[in-house]
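Lecture 7 notes: from sequence to structure.

We start with a single chain of 110 residues. Read the sequence below before looking at the structure.
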Amino acid sequence: MLLQGFGMVLLVIGWAITLFSVVAFVDAALKREDAYRAADKQNKGFWLIILGIAVAVNFFAGMFFLMIIGLIANIVYFVDVRPALKQVTGPRRRGGSSSDGPYGPYNGGR
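Now the structure, written as tokens:
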């Protein structure tokens, strides 16, 4: 009974790591190639290969040790690379113009 419960916990953790890997891979795929170079990180192809291997290991191998290695790659991407890419590309805006400030549109001091 206890082993079955532990197995379920590991299964849920494995699926969470897999979902995290897929999200990291999709996020890396959606970023521009020149942003990686401007942020002085490895190129986009490198990160897609690393994160793609992590996704493939999670889906097909299912060995927990390899999943942890993939998780480390995902954490490095989210903690180091993604913030650097956001700093280079700027935050995404939802509506508004480029002259909008934090409190609304900038009208030039009028």
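The first helix runs from residue 2 to 30. Keep this in mind for problem set 3.
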